[in-house]
């Protein structure tokens, strides 16, 4: 298979030196990544902001940005397992819906991984803050959007997935496979705005569907990108523990303050990324 010039320039040179200075993870770095994994798993399963903790921790451990990005995606598998196990109560009766949306997210995740391996990262980074801000605003305006979506769904027929939601899931899957920061905020906003179900159920479906997009991207990176497996393992173990607790906390917290808090955290991240890119 012919590799793109970006892949040869950015990925292949770091396969033999994945950390700056070719140094391995020491005990303190491993512990720091595991702790960051707990925070990432907890925040990811509750608010969809796992990368807010895991990606900076990988950079602090000495990984170059491209290696940190792909390693972060692989490590999120631990968070997916923990959050799905912790959300068994909310996922009852959601199998068919989750499989349908998961298939769309998987297709999007595969496309996102292909884009990362074949295009400059700057091509997408410029719009990331605006996407996160959009998802946050949708969460804040959930009620009027949900009422509108409910009227359209009733006209379309019960049990059918609205076409706009299908398109949104596919695009969010692309984003998750490519970069992924706050992809959970975008997905939770799309699910919450299209259904009258409790936010805890939307969050559980979000965790499972987003996990599908991350998994297919992680499989691609495992074979085609310079994953730092020691760092990924440390993050994944912490993420498994943190994400197992997230759904338990989510179902006990009041819905409206939680939704507003997630939206405000997403807006703060959007502003941070916008300032960093300026």
UniProtKB/TrEMBL annotation:
The chain crosses the membrane at residues 30-54, 66-86, 98-117, 123-142, 163-192, 212-237, 258-277. The keyword Cell membrane applies. The keyword Transport applies. It is found in: Cell membrane. One of its GO terms (cellular component) is plasma membrane. Keywords: Cell membrane, Membrane, Transmembrane, Transmembrane helix, Transport. InterPro entries: TM_pro_TauE-like, TSUP. It is a multi-pass membrane protein. Its main location: membrane. Belongs to the 4-toluene sulfonate uptake permease (TSUP) (TC 2.A.102) family. This is Probable membrane transporter protein.
């Amino acid at each position: 298979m012919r590799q793109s010039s970006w892949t040869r320039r950015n990925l292949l040179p770091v396969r033999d030196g994945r950390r700056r200075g070719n140094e391995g993870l020491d005990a303190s770095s491993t512990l720091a990544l595991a702790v960051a994994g707990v925070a990432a798993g907890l925040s990811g399963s509750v608010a969809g902001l796992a990368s807010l903790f895991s990606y900076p921790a990988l950079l602090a451990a000495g990984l170059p940005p491209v290696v940190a990005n792909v390693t972060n995606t692989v490590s999120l598998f631990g968070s997916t397992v923990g959050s799905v196990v912790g959300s068994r109560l909310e996922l009852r009766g959601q199998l068919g819906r989750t499989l349908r949306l998961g298939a769309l997210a998987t297709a999007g995740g595969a496309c996102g991984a292909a884009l990362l391996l074949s295009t400059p990262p700057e091509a997408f980074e410029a719009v990331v803050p605006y996407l996160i801000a959009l998802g946050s605003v949708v969460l804040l305006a959930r009620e009027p959007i949900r009422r509108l979506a409910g009227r359209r769904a009733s006209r379309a027929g019960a049990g059918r997935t609205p076409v706009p939601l299908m398109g949104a899931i596919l695009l969010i899957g692309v984003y998750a496979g490519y970069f992924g920061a706050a992809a959970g905020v975008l997905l939770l906003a799309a699910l919450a705005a299209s259904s009258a179900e409790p936010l805890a159920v939307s969050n559980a479906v979000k965790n499972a569907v987003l996990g599908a997009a991350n998994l297919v991207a992680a499989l691609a990176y495992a074979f085609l990108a310079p994953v730092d497996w020691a760092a990924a393992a440390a993050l994944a173990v912490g993420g498994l523990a943190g994400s197992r607790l997230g759904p338990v906390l989510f179902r006990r917290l009041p819905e409206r303050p939680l939704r507003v808090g997630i939206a405000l955290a997403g807006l703060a991240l959007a502003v941070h990324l916008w300032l960093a890119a300026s």
